[in-house]
C-alpha cells in the first residue's frame, strides 16, 4: 500500500525490527515470570497454604484465619491468561495452579466466613450476644 512513497522501505524495515524486538521482549518477560514463579513455588510458603490446614482459630487474638494466599489466586489467573495468549507454562507451575483451583471455591467461602466471624462483634447488638454466644463457642471448637 505504501511502497510507492519515499522512505517506505525504511519504514517497513524499522517496523520489522520493532516487531522482532517486541517478540524478544515478550519471550524474555515470559521467561522471567516462569523463573520467578518457580522460585516462589520452591519457597514452599505458597504451597503450604494448600497442603496444610486451610483455616485455624488464633486463640491469642480471637481471630479466625484462612491460609489461602492471594498469590495463589493470582497464579491461577496468570496461568489462565498466559495460556489464552498461547504460552505454555512449565509443568510445576501448571500443577500448582491446578491444585490452587481445587481449593479456590472453598477458600473464598472460608474467607467470607472468617471475615464475618472476625467482624461480628461490631455488627450485633448487646441483647443478641446471649443468643449467639453458644454458636460462637461451638465454632471455636471446630
Provide structural commentary.
The protein is mainly alpha-helical and 142 residues long. 71% of the residues lie in helices and 6% in strands. A two-stranded antiparallel ribbon has the order 1-2. Helix 3 (70-84) packs across helix 4. The N and C termini lie far apart (72 Å).
Q: Strand count, sense and closure of the main sheet?
A: 2 strands, antiparallel
Average the pLDDT over all residues and give the rounded result: 84
Q: What order do the strands of the largest sheet run in, or round the barrel if closed?
A: 1-2
List how many beta strands DSSP finds: 2
Can I get a quick summary?
By secondary structure, the protein is mostly helical. 71% of the residues lie in helices and 6% in strands. The chain is built from five helices and two strands; from the N terminus they run ααββααα.
SSE topology sketch:
Blueprint lengths: L7 H35 L2 H7 L3 E4 L4 E4 L3 H15 L6 H29 L6 H15 L2
Antiparallel strand pairs: 1-2
Helix pairs in contact: 3-4
Distinctive features:
6% strand, 71% helix, two-stranded antiparallel ribbon, 5 helices, single chain, mainly alpha, elongated, 142 residues, 2 strands
